[in-house]
TrEMBL record:
<keyword id="KW-0560">Oxidoreductase</keyword>
<dbReference type="GO" id="GO:0005506">
    <property type="term" value="F:iron ion binding"/>
</dbReference>
<feature type="region of interest" description="Disordered">
    <location>
        <begin position="235"/>
        <end position="254"/>
    </location>
</feature>
<dbReference type="GO" id="GO:0016706">
    <property type="term" value="F:2-oxoglutarate-dependent dioxygenase activity"/>
</dbReference>
<dbReference type="Pfam" id="PF05721">
    <property type="entry name" value="PhyH"/>
</dbReference>
<protein>
    <submittedName>
        <fullName>Phytanoyl-CoA dioxygenase</fullName>
    </submittedName>
</protein>
<keyword id="KW-0223">Dioxygenase</keyword>
<dbReference type="InterPro" id="IPR008775">
    <property type="entry name" value="Phytyl_CoA_dOase-like"/>
</dbReference>
<feature type="compositionally biased region" description="Polar residues">
    <location>
        <begin position="237"/>
        <end position="246"/>
    </location>
</feature>
Length: 254
């Protein structure tokens, strides 16, 4: 485990919008999740999201094109296998988030709740964005838990973050129509120059706020990168009725 206490990690999250908890998952747990994820990826077990579906830069133009069946996400991790459920509701995650929220955490099954893949060649890059851009909740206080199942760094699609961006009051004009943070305005460039990409080892976890701007490049390595990510909110926050955020039953952590 990381040398920091949970309270120190939570303080870092509140200050910079993300924090890395080193060695948060045990080696045998990581190995089991990686083997499960690789097997389900190899077998193309539904439900899946394909790179061609999103059309991010670098993705194949269609499912019929070369690389068109490159998987971006194994969807609904919580429903896929008991191993994913055990991880998503583990006492370690519940305890960390209870310290962060000051109350019971709730797992969102409508957002993230997946195994993120990043393939060489056809794994697209992801521009700067805040996850809350397409979520609908009574408060913008959600936290995502990103588990590295292998080494992650800038050149294989590791996450970049903009420290402090979760607390900034950005203007709509700083984003494009899809609510990606525009790279060209000088005021945005000043933020992007602050980008950091923490290198992760298997078992490391990044906790990050739903308003923290983050991005990822393509994967220039020769291996698929696999990560498990779930999102949580405190029990006094509620998904907005009638939206995607309220479309599935969420899971209170005990």
């Amino acid at each position: 485990m990381s040398g920091q206490t949970v309270a120190e990690q939570v303080a870092t999250l509140r200050e910079q919008g993300f924090v890395v908890a080193r060695g948060f998952a045990a080696a045998d747990e990581v190995q089991a999740l990686r083997e499960l994820s690789q097997r389900q990826l190899d077998e193309a077990q539904a439900p899946l999201e394909y790179e061609a579906d999103l059309q991010y830069p670098g993705a194949p133009p269609s499912r019929q094109a070369e690389g068109g069946h490159t998987v971006r996400r194994l969807l609904d991790a919580y429903g896929r296998d008991p191993l994913y459920r055990a991880w998503a509701t583990s006492p370690r995650i519940a305890g960390w988030l209870r310290e962060c929220f000051g109350q019971q955490p709730v797992l969102s099954t409508a957002h993230h709740n997946c195994v993120m893949t990043k393939h060489p060649r056809y794994g697209s890059l992801t521009g700067w964005h805040q996850d809350i851009r397409y979520w609908s909740f009574s408060a913008q206080n959600l936290v995502s838990v990103w588990l590295a199942l292998g080494r992650e760094h800038a050149d294989n699609g590791g996450l970049f973050f903009l420290p402090g961006s979760h607390a900034a009051a950005f203007e709509p004009s700083q984003f494009d129509a899809a609510r990606f943070f525009l790279p060209d305005p000088a005021e945005n460039q000043a933020w992007i120059e602050r980008a950091v990409c923490p290198e992760l080892q298997p078992g490391d976890v990044v906790f990050f706020h739903c308003r923290t701007l983050h991005a990822a490049r393509g994967n220039a390595s020769g291996q698929v990168k696999l990560s498990v990510v779930h999102t949580y909110y405190p029990s006094d926050t509620h998904p907005t009725p009638g939206t995607r955020s309220a479309s599935r039953a969420d899971v209170p952590l005990t």
